[in-house]
Design brief:
199 residues; alpha+beta; 11 strands; magnesium; CoAse; NUDIX domain-containing protein; NUDIX_hydrolase_CS; NUDIX_hydrolase_dom
Length: 199
């Protein structure tokens, strides 16, 4: 479990991330923002305010739409700064994971960022109801795979913070765990979102 920056960079470098064509969907990006506490590393996980129009009350990684003129890395870093108040640069990007196409019409690119030493978070209350630092060891949970009548793909749930985190966030964190912590090149495009996240 004791992985540092060099190990994370190496394991992401060994992994060939898949890109998914937009095919009419919107591009989005999220940050797996890594930082340390007491010689242990973890990542930031947010809960969306219940007042938000889309994905209200859901767990998420910091992120959002790619604006015109941006690439996915630029969008991920901008969203991290706007939502969490942590400013990182392109030199802090360690790699990326597979694109994840969502039922709500997006293709999300997860960008792994080294945010250790980037300053104290100052979450934006308009976009962040709660901000939790989750140690990487907490990803060593048994994921739940459910079947639903609406899809032939399994729905993934990750038990974190006393709750169940769903895809797309759960799928991306599960892939991060497999690729970075266990060096297993696991794909997650077969993992489904719950029906409530389809819109």
């Amino acid at each position: 479990m004791a992985v540092g920056r060099d190990t994370i960079v190496a394991r992401l470098g060994e992994f060939t991330a898949r890109s998914v064509p937009l095919d009419g969907r919107r591009a989005a990006a999220v940050c797996v923002a890594l930082s340390g506490r007491a010689e242990e590393f973890g990542f930031w996980l947010i809960t969306r305010p219940v007042t938000m129009r889309a994905h209200a009350g859901q767990f998420a990684l910091p992120g959002g739409r790619v604006d015109d003129g941006e690439d996915t890395v630029g969008a991920a870093l901008r969203e991290l700064r706007e939502e969490v108040g942590v400013a990182c640069g392109r030199d802090d990007v360690l790699g990326r994971l597979d694109d994840y196409p969502t039922r709500s019409g997006y293709v999300i690119t997860p960008v792994v960022v080294w945010a250790d030493g980037a300053g104290r978070p100052s979450p934006n209350p308009a976009e962040v109801a709660t901000l939790d630092w989750v140690p990487l060891r907490d990803l060593e949970v048994t994921p739940r795979f459910l079947r639903i009548p609406e899809s032939d793909r399994p729905v993934i749930q990750l038990p974190l913070l006393g709750h169940l985190v769903h895809a797309p966030t759960a799928a991306m964190l599960y892939q991060f765990r497999e690729v970075v912590l266990h060096r297993r090149h696991t794909r997650v495009d077969d993992l489904e979102q719950p029906v409530f996240a389809w819109r």
